[in-house]
Specification:
Blueprint: H1 3-6, H2 8-17, H3 19-38, H4 40-47, H5 51-64, H6 70-82, H7 88-99, H8 101-111, H9 113-118, H10 121-132, H11 140-153, H12 157-165, H13 174-187, H14 190-207, H15 210-218, H16 224-228, H17 230-240, H18 243-249
């Protein structure tokens, strides 16, 4: 409570008994000011959207730093995407794998995005297969999915179907359940396809209304995989909520 509201005597009593709150406040304030001053140049460049300068600044900072910050790495990754220099993500992956393996494992899946943008099945498989088996990798399920996507792109449909079916469980991330369902629908034919598709849609729509689904996807925008595959996700969503099946559910 402010000093002028609680009164002088009560204020002195309050602060004498709760001095640690004031100390904590000063520490937090000092930390925020220190963080801002430390990153002032970066914030200034970002505010002015000087992507080339941001790239150069962060590349130098990351290469020279003894302790590489995941935050700086992520800003650099986004800078590469915004400026269309996606191949630099693979160079960054090699650097981090050697110099900062812990940070690498946190961003490795997203660093493989260039293979997706190229629709390169061999590159996808070679990059993501090892990651899909490494338990400490963040977004490991996405590494598995990208491996299955590589099989689809390589027209190895039988293998792809087996891998995609592993995502057809209630425990799976909903976004990967959706995408795998959509791909499976393109790999299955005849009456089996119709029945399976109907079952999947009923199951999915019972969990997510379109509004709820849109809100869910919106919360995933920080995942670069979701950003890059946004059109794919939109197509899969339209398929999932297509009119015939919506009428069936109702």
């Amino acid at each position: 409570m402010p000093f002028f509201i609680i009164g002088r005597d009560y204020a002195f009593l309050f602060w004498s008994q709760n001095w640690y709150l004031a100390l904590l406040f000063l520490i937090v304030l000092g930390g925020m000011n220190g963080y801002f001053l430390k990153n002032w140049k970066l914030f200034s460049l970002m505010e002015e959207e000087k992507w080339k300068e941001i790239q150069q600044y962060l590349e130098r900072k990351i290469q020279e730093s003894k302790r590489i910050s995941e935050q700086n790495v992520r800003i650099l990754m986004n800078t590469y995407l915004v400026s269309g220099k996606t191949d630099r993500l693979l160079e960054l992956a090699e650097f981090l794998k050697d110099k900062a393996p812990k940070v690498y494992r946190k961003v490795a899946v997203e660093l493989g995005i260039p293979f997706l943008l190229r629709s390169d099945p061999e590159g996808l498989e070679n990059y993501y297969k090892p990651l899909s088996k490494e338990g400490s990798v963040r977004l490991q399920n996405w590494a598995r999915f990208n491996g299955a996507l590589a099989l689809v792109l390589a027209h190895r449909f039988s293998e792809a179907q087996k891998e995609l079916e592993k995502f057809q469980t209630a425990k799976e991330e909903p976004i990967l359940f959706l995408l795998s369902s959509y791909l499976l629908a393109t790999l299955t034919e005849g009456e089996t396809l119709r029945e399976k598709t109907e079952e999947i849609r009923v199951q999915f729509q019972s969990r997510f209304s379109q509004k709820k689904w849109s809100h869910y996807v919106g919360k995933l925008k920080e995942n670069l995989m979701v950003l890059v595959l946004s059109q794919f996700i939109q197509d899969a969503t339209k398929w999932m909520y297509s009119k015939p099946e919506a009428e069936h559910v109702s």
